[in-house]
Amino acid sequence: MSEQIDNLIKKEYSAGFVTNIESDTLPPGLDEDVVRFISAKKKEPEWMLEWRLKAYRAWREMVEPRWAHVSYPDIDFEAISYYSAPKSAADRPKSLDEVDPELRSTYEKLGIPLHEQEVLAGVAVDAVFDSVSVATTFRQKLKDAGVIFCSISEAIQEYPELVKAHLGSVVPQKDNFYAALNSAVFSDGSFVYIPRGVTCPMELSTYFRINEAKTGQFERTLIVADEGSKVSYLEGCTAPMRDENQLHAAVVELVALDNAKIKYSTVQNWYPGDEQGRGGIYNFVTKRGMAHTNARISWTQVETGSAITMKYPSCVLKGDNSVGEFYSVALTNNFQQADTGTKMVHLGKNTRSTIISKGISAGHGSNAYRGLVRMNPGATGARNYTQCDSLLIGGKCGAHTFPYIESKNPSAVVEHEATTSKVSDEQLFLCQQRGIDAEKAVSMIVNGFCKEVFRELPMEFAVEAGKLLEVSLEGAVG
Amino acid sequence: MLSIRNLHASVDKTEILRGLDLDVGAGEVHAIMGTNGSGKSTLGHVLTGRAGYEVTAGEVRFMGNDLLAMEPEDRAREGLFLAFQYPVEIPGVSNMEFLKASVDALREHRGQEVLDSVSFMKMAREVCKAVNLDQNFLKRGVNEGFSGGEKKRNEILQMLLFEPQLALLDETDSGLDIDAMKIVADGVNSLRGAERSIILVTHYQRLLDYIKPDVVHVLMNGRFVKSGDASLAKMLEERGYDWLRAEAA
Prior knowledge:
The complex is a heterodimer.
Chain A: H1 2-19, H2 32-41, H3 46-60, H4 101-110, H5 114-120, H6 130-145, E1 148-151, H7 152-158, H8 160-166, H9 177-185, E2 190-194, E3 204-205, E4 220-225, E5 230-235, E6 247-248, E7 251-256, E8 261-268, E9 282-291, E10 296-303, E11 308-311, E12 314-317, E13 323-332, E14 337-346, E15 352-362, E16 366-375, E17 383-393, E18 398-407, E19 413-422, H10 425-433, H11 438-454, H12 459-472
Parallel strand pairs in A: 2-4, 3-5, 4-7, 5-8, 6-9, 7-9, 8-10, 9-11, 9-12, 10-13, 11-14, 12-14, 13-15, 14-16, 15-17, 16-18, 17-19
Antiparallel strand pairs in A: 1-2
Chain B: E1 2-11, E2 14-24, E3 29-34, H1 40-48, E4 53-62, E5 65-66, H2 72-77, E6 80-83, E7 90-94, H3 95-109, H4 117-130, H5 136-139, E8 141-142, H6 148-162, E9 166-170, H7 178-191, E10 197-202, H8 206-210, E11 215-220, E12 223-228, H9 230-239, H10 242-248
Parallel strand pairs in B: 3-10, 3-11, 6-9, 9-10
Antiparallel strand pairs in B: 1-2, 1-4, 4-5, 7-8, 11-12
Helix pairs in contact in B: 6-7
C-alpha cells in the first residue's frame, strides 16, 4: 500500500517538475513564449530574439511540404518539446556495459576505439581522456591561423557582427517550413570563419565538438570563408547515432566569398528504425551555399541512416566563374525512404556545376533523386553535368529520378545522364563460385558503384564510408 | 576426387538430370559431350551450388565431403572451380580487386598467409602473360566490355590463379578462334598434374586434339549413355549422336 502511494507521489512530483520554468525540459508545444524562453536560456542579445521571432511568425503561416516521394504519418508539432538541456552526468550510462548491446556490436564492426565508443554512446566519462587534449592543441593551432571554430551560441555572444551579417543570408528565415522552424528554435550548432587568404590548417570536424554541446534536433551551422580562403569541413561520423527526438530539422549555410573554397563532407548515420520500419529519425535538412566570384562550393555526402530523409544540399552560383559540386551516396535498406538531391542555381557568367548522385536501394527501401538545375538569363556560358545512377538490390525496393532542368540562357549547356542497374543473381553467384561470400560480394559491387563519390571524400572518411555501407547492407542479401 | 551417384536435379520443376553417375579420380581429365539441352551446363551449376537448381535425389562426394551440403563459396574454397560458359560482367569492381578478394578467401580457407598487394600483383601479371591478356585488363571492371574471347581467357586466368583441385570448363572452347583455343588448352594442360582433375564440357572434338582426355562421356537426356576413351569423341565427330540415341533406346 505505502509503496503504491509512494509511486503516486513520485509521479505527481515529476509531472509538476516539468512545468517549472527553471527546469531543463520544456513541456511540448510551440508559441512565442517558447522562442523567448530558448533565447533567454542562451542569454542571447535582443537582435537574435527578434530574428527568431520573425522566423516563428513566418513559420506559423506556412504549411508542411508534402511533395517529396516519401510517406510518413502527420507530425504533431505541438507534441514536440523544443528545449531540452544536455543530460546531466547522473542520467547518462555509467559505462559501456549499460549501453544497448546492438549499438555496441555496430561500434565493434566499424572498428571504433573504446574511448570513442564511450563518447558516442554518451557515457559519463569523468577522467580526462585523449580527445580533450587533442581538441585543445587543435584549438590553439586554429587560433594561430585566425580561424574561428566554435558553437553558434558562442559566436552570437563573441562575434555578433559576423553572425548578424551572414546568418540567414543564404537560407532566409522564411525559406521553407523546416528552415523557418529551425530559425525560430535552433538549439545550437557550429560556426566557422576563415579569414581572408587563409587556408584552414586542418580538416574541421564536428567530432571535436561532440562533448562540448549536445546540439540536438534543430542544429544550425554557418560557415563563412572570406576572400581567397579555403576550408574542408566534416560533419557527422560513421558511428550510429541515436536520439530520443524523432524529427531533425537542421540548417547549414555556407558563404564562399570571392575566390574562396569550401568543401563540406557529411557522413550521416542516424538511427534508421528497426527491420520492420518502426521508429527511426526523420531528417529534414536545409543545406545551401552561396558562391561568389571564382568561388567553389563542394558538397559530398554519404547517407545511410534515418527512416525518412528529405535533403537537397544546394549551391547558388552567384559570382561569375563560380563552381558548385554535389557528390552523393544515399543508401536505403529495410523500410528507409529517401528523397534527396541538389539544386544548382546558375546566376553568374561561366558558372559550372557537377552533380554525381548514387542511390542504392535494398530491402523495401525507396530512394528518390530530385535535382534542379537552373540557368538564369545572366548565366551566359554556364555548364552543368549531371550523372544520376541507381542500384537495386533485391526485388522489393524502389528507385526514382526527378530531374528538373530550367534553362533561360541559350548559351548554357546542361547534360543529364541516368542509369539504373541491379545486383544480379549471376553476379553474386560468380563471386561465390570464386570463394567470395555474398555479403562481401555485395559490398564490393556497392563500393565499386560509389567509387566516384568516395574519391571526393577526405581519405580517412572514404575508408570509413566503405565500411559503413557494408554494415548498413547487412542482411540485404540471403 | 569426385563421385556422383544417381544424381537427379530439376530447374523450375523440370527434371534435367535423371540419375547421373560419374567418378573422376585424381589427375584424370574427363570430357563430357552431348547435344544441346542434354544437361551439360546444368551439371556444372548443380555441382557448384547455383540457386534455382534443385537436387531431388542422389549423392555427390568431393574430396571426401558431402558436396551438396556445402555453401557455394565453400565448394569453391575446397577447390571446385567452374569456368563459366557466359561470364557475367560486374561493372565498377576492378578485375584486380575481384581476383585479390577471391585469392584472399581461398588462401584464408587453406590456412595460407594472405598475400600483400605487391606480391599478388606480380603473380596476377604473370598469369596475364600466360593467357595473353594485356595487363590493362586487371584494371578494368570484371568482364566489363570484354569480347567473348577475352571473357573466356579471363576465366582461364582465374583458374590458373586459384589452382583448383577440380576444374570444370563449361564450353570454354565455344566461340573461340584457333589461337584463343590454344591458349585455353595450354592453360588447362599446364594445370594438369597428379593431384588435379579436369572436366571439359564441350560440343566439339576439336578441343580434345589439344587436351587429351582420359575418359569421354556422352550425356543424353540427363544421364550418361556411353563412356569410352578419346576415340569415342572422334567417333561422335564422324557419326553424330543419332546412333547412340538408337543404341540407348
